[in-house]
Amino acid sequence: MGTGTDTTRANESEGHRARLRARLLADADGLLDHELVEYLLALAMPRIDTKPHAKRLLAEFGSLGGLFAADPESLLRVKGIGEGSIAALKIVNAVAVRMLRGEIAARPILSSWQALLDYLHVDMAHITVERVRVLHLNTKNVLIRDELVSEGSIDQASVHVREVIKRAIELGSAAIILVHNHPSGDPKPSREDVLLTRDIIEAGRRMSIEVHDHIIIGTHGHTSMRELGLI
């Protein structure tokens, strides 16, 4: 009897996945978030009902963005999730970041501003520690280097003005864009953010290096210090 029951469950599971696959191929937008994750996990765990795992992951990380950006250690702590499933989730995030990065490569950043924001949001909005990056641009405002300059605790990161400008000189940067994330989710700049930005602007001015903007990324959106009139 046990064998018959197992066979029935396996057939039901396969039928369910076949229906999901058909819906995915016909209209991916029609699938719910947990169904997308469920089918993705099924590729890594073909003999397991992955719906509970998908719902558990979304409950834990809050959204698709939070889930795909989660670090492997955090994912591994979720019941039933192993390295195969984690690899499936991380490859989705890696492909998304790479596709968005391609949208800003070899073209002027200032004329691809929304593409830049999309890239930064996917790459940084759900990170649980604060990271500061500097985008280095040439005289045509084309990206020549995207560098991580600091990774701090959950609420602070250390950035040295002299090192930022020194690196810009080494790379021959004509301009830079500062970027960092707020793990709290609120992209509103702090007083310290504004003061640091103004110090870097002043130091860059002496070396003919322009600071186009300082963008702060959060799960609730982004802020541009230039748009806010803070620089």
Rounded to an integer, what's the Rg over CA atoms? 22 Å
Question: What is the class of the largest domain in the CATH system?
Answer: Alpha Beta
What is the typical, i.e. mean, pLDDT? 91
As a percent range, the share of helical residues equals 40-55%
The biggest beta sheet reads:
5 strands, mixed
- What best-fitting shape do the alpha-carbon axes yield? elongated
Report the total helices.
Answer: 9
How does this model look, in words?
With 231 residues, the chain is α+β, with helices and mostly antiparallel strands. It folds into 2 domains: 2-97, DNA polymerase, domain 1 (Orthogonal Bundle), CATH 1.10.150; 108-224, Cytidine Deaminase, domain 2 (3-Layer(aba) Sandwich). The protein has helices at 2-26, 33-44, 51-61, 64-69, 72-76, 83-104, 113-124, 161-171, 191-206, and strands at 131-137, 143-151, 175-181, 210-218, 221-224. Strands 2-1-3-4-5 form a 5-stranded mixed β-sheet, sandwiched between helices. Helix 2 packs across helix 3 (51-61), helix 6 (83-104) packs antiparallel against helix 7 (113-124) and helix 8 (161-171) crosses helix 9. It is elongated and about 80 Å long. The model has no long low-confidence stretch (mean pLDDT 91).
How would you describe this structure in keywords?
5 strands; elongated; 231 residues; five-stranded mixed sheet; DNA polymerase, domain 1; 2 domains; alpha+beta; Cytidine Deaminase, domain 2; 9 helices; 16% strand
